[in-house]
């Protein structure tokens, strides 16, 4: 049974960030879905796990690299899609910590380069992907452009402070998605643009912070992937521009 029954089969997918923990789980879930015609996976590198999957699914999976720090590289990667018109675009990339650099607990820890890096990967890159991919998406049938966001990007839900760069970049992402949804509606009336909060997932991104996660709230990548696909399947055009958690609940701006 397809997790994306609301789409007109067969479904073509572009998955950005396919080498990450959630990205790989989504890729496996999509390839197991009979309604998926093909997946074009984009990632910073092509690890052996992706090469092996391509060998197993040569007719349904293709891979390419993409540099999210360079718009010309983003444009080139999308141009290599040829005539593909994706029904679903999933952007699963994100940056929370970088080596020894961790989220700021105070404004005293703010650094220009780290802040810019967070904004580039978490906010600007998804917006540029929308710029280059939404024009390829169908105008006369259901389509979804979804990006992994985070609950900590909600201004109204911020009661703890801290994590300045990450919070700011996710808040910026949510605003960019809202602007994109408003503009796209004029030509793509059936398109849904959405942010998705996967919860805390057992991946390298969350690993340094897992000790504080309540029991039962650390999700496997497979659970997160299935949950997010179910949320996507239930979204309607009037919900475009909003952010939703893994359980389908809307997250306040």
Descriptors:
253 residues, alpha/beta, Rossmann fold, eight-stranded mixed β-sheet, two-stranded parallel sheet, 10 strands, globular, Fungal_SecMetab_SDRs, NAD(P)-dependent dehydrogenase, short-chain alcohol dehydrogenase family, SDR_fam, NAD(P)-bd_dom_sf
What this model shows, in words?
The chain has 253 residues and is of the alpha/beta class. It has one domain (11-251): Rossmann fold (3-Layer(aba) Sandwich). Helix content is 34%, strand content 18%. The protein is built from six helices and ten strands, in the order E-H-E-H-E-H-E-H-E-H-E-E-E-H-E-E. It has helices spanning 21-31, 48-56, 71-79, 112-133, 164-184, 221-234, and strands at 11-16, 36-43, 61-65, 88-91, 143-148, 191-197, 200-201, 218-219, 242-245, 250-251. It has an eight-stranded mixed beta sheet, with helices on both faces. The chain has a two-stranded parallel ribbon with strand order 7-8. Helix 1 crosses helix 6 (221-234), helix 3 packs parallel to helix 4 and helix 4 (112-133) packs parallel to helix 5 (164-184). The chain is globular. The mean pLDDT is 93.
